Amino acid sequence: MKPVVVLDKIIETADRLFYEQGYNLTGINQIIEEAGISKPSLYNHFKSKNDLLLAYLDQLYTKWFDGLDAYSKDFDAPLDKLIAFFDYRINRQIATGYKGCPWNKIINEVPSEQFEIFERASKFKADLKARITHLVKQLNRSKDKPLNDEDLVEVIFSECESGVLMARITKSHTYLEKAKDRVLKLV
Question: Could you say which of 6, 17, 46, 119 would form a disulfide bridge with 26 (CB–CB 3.0 to 4.6 Å)?
Fold first, then answer.
């Protein structure tokens, strides 16, 4: 087992606090206290809370896609991987107590002039959509379907995003299940 290093403690604590209580409500002193580190230790790694947020987002990106890859690794068929994509998001919502999408939460808290944060969120959403696009292209759907592949990607992405939002609002994954069912009918 690798020893927990200061940087890991800081990122793990920021990850938990930013997601659970929000970026704006999380203070540097709380992170320091809950990580069990000194103030100089934090500032040796991060010049500001904003720098810590950027590191958190970079780690979140990697962790999220690694989790998706691990969740869907046993599926070979594109349709099975598409279903796994929905199931992964459902399981994440259940595991987090329906706290919603961490990316959406952050961009709703920071001013729009914090371009680096919005660029990271935009990259995450674009890469998410690219994964869906890749799976839809592999489906080799017939041309007589009501939606072409591009439109189907947009519907899948929108259904998933709205399903996560509704999971947060209703504290239930019902909307994500229904979104998955609607998508399966369109495929």
Answer: 17
pLDDT digits (tens, 9 = 90+) for 46-87: 999 999 999 999 999 999 999 999 999 999 999 999 999 999
In this structure, which amino acid lies at residue 140?
Answer: N
Dump pLDDT digits (tens) for 77-118. Answer: 999 999 999 999 999 999 999 999 999 999 999 998 999 999
Domain assignment of residue 148, given as a range:
54-186
Q: Report d(CA 10, CA 16) in Å as an integer.
A: 10
Q: Do 101 and 26 share a structural domain?
A: no
Cα 41–Cα 46–Cα 50 angle in degrees, nearest 5: 140
Shared-domain flag, residues 41 and 69: no
